[in-house]
Amino acid sequence: MGSDGTDDKSTANGDGRATSHGGADADAAISVRSLTMSFGDNTVLGGVSFDVPRGRTTAILGPSGTGKSVLLKNIIGLLHPDAGEIWVDGEQIVGMRERDIYRVRRKFGVLFQDGALFGSMNLFDNIAFPLREHTRMTERAIRDRVLANAEMVGLLDHLKKLPGEVSGGMKKRAGLARAMVTAPEIILFDEPDSGLDPVRVAYLDELVVTAQRETGATFFIITHNIPSVMRTADFFGVLFRSHLVRFGPTLEMQQSDDPVIQQFIEGRSRGPIGMDEMDESSDGGSQGAAGSRGRDDTGSGFPPRSPDAGRAPDASAGRQGRDDGTDGALADGEGTWRAGDTARNGIVTV
Questions:
Q1: Is the CB of residue 107 less than 8 Å from the CB of residue 91?
Q2: Fold of the domain spanning 55-72+97-269+303-344
Q3: CA distance 191 to 60
Q4: pLDDT at position 275, please?
Q5: CB-based burial of residue 295 (10 Å sphere; 0-12 exposed, 13-18 middle, 19+ buried)?
Q6: pTM for this predicted structure
Q7: Which ranges in the chain belong to alpha helices (H)?
Q8: Which residue, among 4, 70, 34, 45, has the nearest Cα to 235 in the 3D structure?
Q9: C-alpha to C-alpha distance for 98 and 126, rounded to whole angstroms
Q10: Which stretch of 49-58, 270-279, 304-313 has the lowest confidence by average pLDDT?
């Protein structure tokens, strides 16, 4: 472990991407090493490396279309990278046999964007589904487990209702209860704030903080909601144009002078992040040849991107706050997860 809280084998290169030459960090629940994935000529993830600290809340942020959901699918094993390694609780899952992948997936709980609840089941049966599908627990034991998780998320009085009879926030809470009901070591969140108003997001953030504290599980959140991340995450990283710009403790990331991170956190239109992330002409690097007054050939006037290198996390820093989620679409254009898909793929929270 280095002085900055990262694996001694981890480095950061000149364009801000974290890189690594070794395996998993012993203190990490998930370690991603030089992960690369392309769809045709489009590189979605280009050498991404970071560690998700065990028993903490980590978020990955980035503009739409930057590979966040592709990253999540790779971690779960639903997609297979072109190169790189993914370590889950000390096991390298890239290239792992399907039977072993199913076993590793049992370590995960997943909160989907809209909760991905079964419309024909009431909330009780939705929460109980993973226990009935993947365990041999008695109905009495299942009932006790479901009630305990429903109480944690404030749904005890609504368990007989169907998903169509409750609000979006209640669906999210039911989805979270189901994600936690098997007591997984790692809980994954796909855009948990999607579809919720700011007040409901704040309530969900408080719930996420409480749930993480009470369960001690590792929470890994994919989102673009900055205020939510500041309330929930101990660590976060920013993806941009297929690379990890920087990854670190929340307080440290807030103070970063990297222009991509500054623009994204502040929500400014002027900066390296353009309207279309597939359009490389919006990169500040094109501006020098574009003509006068620092304008690029699109006329955007965006300033050039700084070459500041990203640094891996300082394990000593803590969180600033917490988040919530919606529709079962999981991908940046790469498809949709549905409840049946997760059941077939061995993920316990469907």
A1: no
A2: Rossmann fold (3.40.50)
A3: 10
A4: 67
A5: middle
A6: 0.73
A7: 68-76, 98-105, 123-134, 139-152, 168-180, 198-215, 226-232, 250-254, 259-266, 339-344
A8: 4
A9: 26
A10: 304-313
114 is written with which tokens?
């809209």
**pLDDT at position 315:** 42
pLDDT tens track for 221-244: 999 889 999 999 999 999 998 899
Structure tokens at 83: 């190169």
Cβ(170)–Cβ(155) below 8 Å: yes
Domain map (residue ranges) of the chain: 55-72+97-269+303-344
DSSP structural state of residue 328 = S
Residue carrying the six token digits 């006068």: 292
214 HSE (CA, 13 A, CB side): 14
**Residue of 331, 239, 329 whose CA lies nearest to 48:** 239
Q: How many contiguous H segments (helices) and E segments (strands) does the chain have?
A: 10, 12
| Cβ neighbours around 77 below 10 Å, total | 22
